[in-house]
Amino acid sequence: MESVSPVLIWFLLGVVFFVTELILPGFILFFLGVGAWCTASVLALTSVSLTVQMIIFLISSLVTLILLRSWLRSIFLGDSSEENDSANVDTAPSIGIVTEAIAPPGQGRVKYGGSFWKATADEPIPENTVVQILERKNLIVHVHPLHTEETV
């Protein structure tokens, strides 16, 4: 009976790591799969001992893990950093226009920042009133009517 090629064994081991990563996502097994495929690539070019194969596997897995994990994780899982959220960056006082009357303790709607938001207020505010955004909690803004004093 013919023996199985070490290149094929390392390649299939890499496939097993990739499939296991899909089943048990932790984003570590992916790099073991990369290490197995690097070892298979080296074996396809030259013949080395089992000890050298294990060293190649360990070094390539660790190097890719250290260098690429945080970068690839942000690509595949997304970056949830609030500093990059455009809705959270605006620290200047903002104004909006009431599109649906606000009658406390109920909610109304305000057009603010190019979007429509659910809004609450401490006092009733009729439609088409210009309001100042005091606070934003998740998808609800707390507003106050913006009173402009006119001089005659």
From TrEMBL:
<dbReference type="Pfam" id="PF01957">
    <property type="entry name" value="NfeD"/>
</dbReference>
<keyword id="KW-0812">Transmembrane</keyword>
<keyword id="KW-0378">Hydrolase</keyword>
<keyword id="KW-1133">Transmembrane helix</keyword>
<feature type="transmembrane region" description="Helical">
    <location>
        <begin position="43"/>
        <end position="68"/>
    </location>
</feature>
<dbReference type="GO" id="GO:0005886">
    <property type="term" value="C:plasma membrane"/>
</dbReference>
<dbReference type="GO" id="GO:0006508">
    <property type="term" value="P:proteolysis"/>
</dbReference>
<dbReference type="InterPro" id="IPR012340">
    <property type="entry name" value="NA-bd_OB-fold"/>
</dbReference>
<feature type="domain" description="NfeD-like C-terminal">
    <location>
        <begin position="96"/>
        <end position="145"/>
    </location>
</feature>
<keyword id="KW-0645">Protease</keyword>
<dbReference type="GO" id="GO:0008233">
    <property type="term" value="F:peptidase activity"/>
</dbReference>
<feature type="transmembrane region" description="Helical">
    <location>
        <begin position="7"/>
        <end position="37"/>
    </location>
</feature>
<protein>
    <submittedName>
        <fullName>Membrane protein implicated in regulation of membrane protease activity</fullName>
    </submittedName>
</protein>
<dbReference type="InterPro" id="IPR002810">
    <property type="entry name" value="NfeD-like_C"/>
</dbReference>
<keyword id="KW-0472">Membrane</keyword>
<dbReference type="InterPro" id="IPR052165">
    <property type="entry name" value="Membrane_assoc_protease"/>
</dbReference>
